[in-house]
Amino acid sequence: MAVDSPSPSLDSPAPAHVFTEMERWNQSRSNVLKTLATFWSFLVMGANDAAYGLESYYRLSYTVVSLVFFSPLGGYTLAALLNNKIHVHLGRRGVAFIAPSCHLLAYIVNCLHPPYPVLVVSFIFAGFGNGLADAAWNAWIGNMADANQMLGFLHGLYGVGAVLSPIIATSLITRAHLGWYYFYYIMIACAAVELAFCLTVFWDAKPTPESTSPDSSRGVLRRTLFTKHSGRVTWICAFFLLGYVGIEVAIGGWIVTFMMRVRHGADFASGMSATGFWLGITFGRFVLGFVTPRLGEKLAIIIYCLLEIGFGLILWLVPNFYAGVVAVAMQGFFLGPFFPAAVVVATKLLPRAQHVSAIGFAAAFGGGGAAVLPFAVGAIAQARGVQVLQPFIIGLSGGIFLLWCGLPRMPKLRVDGEEEEMGERGA
């Protein structure tokens, strides 16, 4: 039994072969508070990535400054390796303490604007905290009733943080004429609230005696990655998220340059195209989270991906600035549900004991897309021009479309224990 999902609501445990009733976010006051805590944690994570003014402050090239964006990947990778052990031995209470503490430590270091190598190391701690929280809260929310809607709100709050963060940071720099590091005073306050809130509401989420037994923790990640059924699902989700996150960050990072140089837009209007893209992702997560379960996760993402590719073709082939702004916002809208849907698929197709390991690994693997693929776009753009952005994005979208089609058939209901194991043996 894993500790990454809501505990059964019945007084006595259900037999292994019986379908278990799933908890709802508003089933109890405790669940409401825990859900709000996870939402706040994702808001903090979404606001985490502002790194404004580093080039001028440290007088470094863009290539050297880019290490700040690579370093969280090290923390994510470490979290992927340790996720299951932390859950088994410390429970969600351990995650509720460690993840916000890592955020708090990183932001305190950033406020001190230390030598640049120290700053890079501090973002490793932020990445480790993000990796733990990403796996824990995705798995916990993903095992609730109405998981698509709930994960849509969870990741929507991440999008809200990503939208607000650059607005606040830019205002502090341009309007208040403060250094880039003043933004992290706000982040310290947010992380302190995250630590107090999460630790308080998840204090009772201790590891169970079953989860701390040697058999429960031995080789879970190995089984998740290398058994026939679990490995297929986990690796497909991992490569899917690698491509998805790469698409998201590449568009978000390069669309302003594309709109200025290829569509000849004004600086401010081109900058708003990036805001429209991130708002599209945020609204897509909120709105399409209610549509996805009606269509089924597999069919829904196939449809969304085809629509996203269609709007990408409009952005690429229609030489009109305003059409491009609308098209990129719609790309974001249909990309929004991809990550939540991948989490739901993992929780439906994998045994519950593997949820944290699988989601943690896939999220860390996807983090590689954020670090590597935007720089691949940059390297190609330097040689061929920034107009290669959309052909690159469309090709990558086609790749993750084919990956998604390779998932096993989705079960209509989730099962626990013996039924799940039988499903894995039969796959």
UniProtKB/TrEMBL annotation:
Cited InterPro entries: MFS, MFS_dom, MFS_trans_sf, MFS_Transporter
Superkingdom of the organism of origin: Eukaryota
Compartment(s): Endomembrane system
UniProt-recorded Gene Ontology molecular function terms: transmembrane transporter activity
Keyword flag Transmembrane helix: yes
Keywords from the named record: Membrane, Transmembrane, Transmembrane helix, Transport
Domain Major facilitator superfamily (MFS) profile, chain residue ranges per copy: 27-414
Name under which the protein is recorded: Major facilitator superfamily (MFS) profile domain-containing protein
Lineage: Eukaryota, Fungi, Dikarya, Ascomycota, Pezizomycotina
